[in-house]
Amino acid sequence: MRILLVALNAKYIHTNLALRYLREGVRTLYPDVLLKEFSINDHLDRIAGEIYEAKADVVGFSCYIWNLKETVEVIRQLHPVCPNTRFVLGGPEVSFESEEFLLEHPEVDALVIGEGEKTILELLKAWQDGHDPSHVQGIAWTKNGKIMLNPAPVSPLSMNDLPFPYTEDEDFTGRLVYVETTRGCPFNCQYCLSSTFQGVRFLEPERFRKMFRQLLKNGARTIKFVDRTFNANKRHALGILDIVREESELHSDAKSIRVHCEMAGDLLDAEWMDYFRNYPRGLVQLEIGVQSTHQPTLKIVSRPQRFKEWKKYIAEMRCFGIPLHLDLIAGLPEENWLNFRTSFNEVYETDPDMLQLGFLKVLKGSGLRLQSSRYGLLFVPDPPYTILETKDLSHSEILQLQHMESILDKYYNSGKFEHALRHVLKLFPTPFDFYHKFAELWHKKDWFSRQWQGKALFDKLWEFLQDVQDAEKREGMDIIPWNIIRDALRFDYYMWERPNIIPDYLQDENSLELEKRTDQWKTMQDKIRKDAYWEMIIPEVKKMDRRQWNRNTAIAYFTSDLLQESNRPCWYLFHYQQGKVKAYRYEES
């Protein structure tokens, strides 16, 4: 019997961990097992064609909120021309409301409910032996037109009994690879499916070492732990990170390796800070789900936390070179516009590397789904079940927050406007007010309907600031410090990439006047570039000839020193190399 396991990933660079567990478990009895990964952005005709040509007896799909629609379309396209092929689906998106799903999709033969490593093997044996799968635990299936539901096993699988998922020599270069060292979560968040089962199971650290070593050997450099709460057990988490460090140090390109962990802020403490202080910079990246700082909301969703207490660790971790992503969820119960504004501002002011503004997904099986009427949760009926309205937040307000999210990603999360934002935000009562007002202009101008190139984002911000100035003048005020903001924007412009032309609005009068005197301007630039000062602070200078040095640098004049927060005029040299930019203040020797 030939088995084909299929994943439609959200992006090409992603990999599917679940199917690799299943492949290794299945091949003990069914060596003719194939694995194919696609992207939801691929043409469904091509996906269906490749699956058809595999001539499999059983095709299994891994289903999530981001790929269920496309998966069903592929199966419907295949079913008429593959009458003898059985289609089985598994994953969180089909583990709840299974009976309704099978009634709506008669072309699907069975659903695996919950963990599938043991279930899928028993299901395949039943089909091969010509038996109905009535004895197989953890499936939903159809028998004589009637939906049958076999409950999942009471005792969950031990992680140490799972097959090793990465036995094959696959090329993971440039891909995001997933691993897990725990299953379960100590918390009971009502918006998350982890609340549907209790307890946390742990993988023996040395089993992880074998897996991590294999991944590095196969070119993986960005590895994400799918553990719901990586630091659920401190000793276990520290042991895993020790292995990450030990194995990474054996590679010549250790600096290109990064692991991503999702942690709970409430479980951080001084011992964690001492550990991170001595951890290799950039090796670990953390994501922490704050979700909200509104205590009544946190109580409803069963996720109490003391953000005001643990946020002190954020600045420490950033000093240790740990990139930090913080998450917020809009649309949670009892959080209105003003409450969410407070949550946003409190999290934003901690200055994370990335602030991910997400929107509640009212997932099948979640506690909030069961209580959606109580809290007035209106949501899209199809995956990903995004919130549309609550009794505390109108649909219009959610649309405004979605516009804000787009602006936040373009300007803050891109990391390209660090200096400009620092000064522009001073013009507004809070960060939330800036992003809201800026998003309103984008919406009014219909800018969201187009894809703008990077440099155009500077134009939009400048136009917004002019609108702010016009409004201030109408009120008899004009408090915008144009010189400082212009310097900050121009500095970010140079940090984006080496510019050929600087827009006039980013030039101050002194710079424009100096540029008009072309000889004097060029003489000053040449003097700065040729100064022996750079050989002391940029070692790469000695390896470049004059043409390379000129091509990889830019010289700019500023009326104030942004990095040293001084009002003194200064020159900066920007060094561009391998996609990275560094700025150096010119100190005349």
From TrEMBL:
The keyword Cell membrane does not apply. PROSITE patterns: B12_BINDING, RADICAL_SAM. Keywords: Iron, Iron-sulfur, Metal-binding, S-adenosyl-L-methionine. One of its GO terms (molecular function) is metal ion binding. Transmembrane segments: none annotated. CDD domains: Radical_SAM, radical_SAM_B12_BD. The keyword Transmembrane helix does not apply. It holds the Pfam family DUF4080. Its cofactor is [4Fe-4S] cluster. One of its GO terms (cellular component) is cytosol. Residues 171-408 form the Radical SAM core domain. Residues 1-134 form the B12-binding domain. This is Anaerobic magnesium-protoporphyrin IX monomethyl ester cyclase. It comes from Desulfosporosinus lacus DSM 15449. The lineage of its organism: Bacteria, Bacillati, Bacillota, Clostridia, Eubacteriales.
